[in-house]
Amino acid sequence: MNDLALEFVNVSKSFPGVQALKDVSIQIKKADVHAIVGENGAGKSTLMKIAVGELLRDTGIIKVFGQEAQINSPSDGYNYGISLIHQEFSLVPTLDVAQNIFLGRELTRGHLSFMDGNLMYKQTEEILDSLKMFHLDSHLKIRDLAVAQKQVVEIAKALSLNSKIIIMDEPTAALTLEETSRLFDVVRGLKANGVTTLFISHRIEEIFEIADKVSILRDGELILTKSVAQIDRNQVINNMVGRSLDFIFPPRVKHKKESKVVLEVKKINKERQFSDVSFQLKEGEILGLAGLVGSGLSEVAMAIFGLNQLDTGEIYIEGKKVEINSPFKAIEYGLALLPEDRRELGLVIVRSVLENLTLPALYRDVARKYFIDFKREILLAREAQKELSIRFTSFSQKAESLSGGNQQKVVVGKWLLTRPKILIMNEPTRGIDVGAKLEIYKIVNTLAQRGMGIIFISSEFSEILGISHRVLVMSEGRITTELDPENSTEKDILKFAIRKKVS
Amino acid sequence: MKNLQFKEMIRRYGILIGLIGLITGFSVLSERFFTISNMLIVMRQTSIVAFLAVGMSFVILGAGIDLSVGSVLAFSGVVGAGVMQNGGIFFGILAGLALGTALGAFSGIVITKLKVPAFIATLAMMAIARGGTLVYTDGRPITGLPSSFAFLGRGYIGNVPFPIILMLIIFILAYIILKFTRFGRYVYATGGNINAARASGIKVDKVIISTFAISGFFSGLTGMVLASRLNSAQPTAGMGYELDAIAAVVLGGTSLFGGEGELWGTLVGALIMGILNNGLNMLNVSSFYQQVAKGIVILIAITVAQSGKK
Prior knowledge:
heterodimer; A: 503 residues; alpha/beta; Rossmann fold; six-stranded mixed sheet; 18 helices; B: 310 residues; mainly alpha; ABC transporter involved in vitamin B12 uptake, BtuC
């Protein structure tokens, strides 16, 4: 007599420098909709990937329908009837719905094993029918579908695999309210058919709408598992955020209120990304911009730096109106951007530390006319190395061989050498270990003390509170509030960062 | 650690070892091979592919590919020769170089501004330039070139054929550009990660257009040298040379993904191609088998380079 669909027993997992999961034990009942919530980096996705075998747990046991399961590789999850639907879909855009559903296990007939198209389309239609899906035809190409429809295709695929447990990783992140409610109808339909759903979400309201039970993770630990009837919204938020800061921030540097404004952004807009964003940044100020993934913060940063064009709005630097249509221009105006994705936008990882460090400075400082001044280049690179204590064995070492923290310091270093007045840091501590984080905070403080205006973007609210002079919170492309970090809590930020259910 | 260093050595210098091995092998098999006069012949033959390979190095380091070099060579050659008939040597060569550069730059503009993949854009240019050549010449070679024009392809300085000297000058110049100038650094950065390069304030479109213009320039130059060597500009000149040039660059260890590679490798790569041709000729291997041999050498070289990477 066991009515558990899935059970995690003391599951632990660590990555270099981070303990992602610590002894997590959760029991998930058959045909339940079980929500897993937590802040970014709490370990939700890691746990789900472990459940299907995309990641291997360090220790612990996974039981499926009461039996201990050997889930050690990505296909093992499917064998036990567990499907994980990612935020980024794993569908082939140029193939149609049925082709995607049967991808890699096409149905065949006859001795020559020709594909049986008719049968595949018929079975696809049956699955779509049984779920009363919305306007979905098995012949439609994936690239022509809306996000919600793709979600449904993923679910249909899971069902065609006979999955009894379906895990959805933030399925509503990209959906409109109407699409969300239709997706919920589908989830209820699954439940009625005895399918168990694990549901990861940032949106607290949704949990109360769809889930039977909720488990809260924080810093890799299970805080609690409760039936949603026994918990309220505030309790969920309190437990997500917790009280304690993980480590101590360096003392906040003083900032004079009367300093001059270095950057002013007035009502900038970009369709589908952000709207009416306005703020000022003063000399020596650390302005925290807080928001969850998808809030539009990264897009704002990219637009200010000239990597995206604005639809409307104005940008002023030291009181002068400027047109920034390329990073080249942005650098001319004294801007620098530490991008969110340092391997994609920050570093040329196949080139050396030296070349990366001096790349933006090459144009104005290091080269005389056409030729590189190698003495000056080394001099500047040493300066950055010393200032930021970047650790590497040789300047000719490839950037890809450095640790995450040192890579990030190289990106900071390359911008310092352009002597910027304004530094935009987008998730500067993502993916680096605690020690390196602390070093980055110290650097931020030092730079602000020297008069640099710093925009500090992060989805880790504790660090935003620990380091900023002033905090703006963004949600769905709009600034929702301004907070004083000395008198605010993570809970306050979260309240304004979570999408309000208004229509 | 030792093992790692050894692999790195193989990856970097394996191609040089290959070259030495090849020379040693042919020297043993044929006593006429390793003589000064034959080595000069090899180098002169190599110079044609080497010119193209220098331009191709810029393009491939910038994460592009240029399939049009053979056709652009022919078009520049015939137009340069045509202009030369009435306008004299100086304007003839100038016209050839200018046309090559312009066609290369045009490909670069199509790639960056119209976002056409380099493979497609230069494939189109390959057809356009070859067609242009045939239209311009009506399919007949252009002859009657001034006698002093012969120096470019057939002249000597001392005992050394002029194309070899030109090849060395060009390699040194290109090496200086790639190693010591801002532009060279930008080519590596753009090829290594175009997004990060753009975000670092590099005008990546300009860099890419420049690399294709450089490739076009060298195609034009090769067209002129070849016309001088043959004392006529052939409309069918340079057919298939793009593949030899790409092979030389890749043999030299330059990554087809861009951003990684050294120019000396390209020179070695071109020499390997030239030595294979010459050595196999000396051993009386039929030209059909020679092609098979070339292909196999490329496969072996790339496989060794790949294994060194891991």
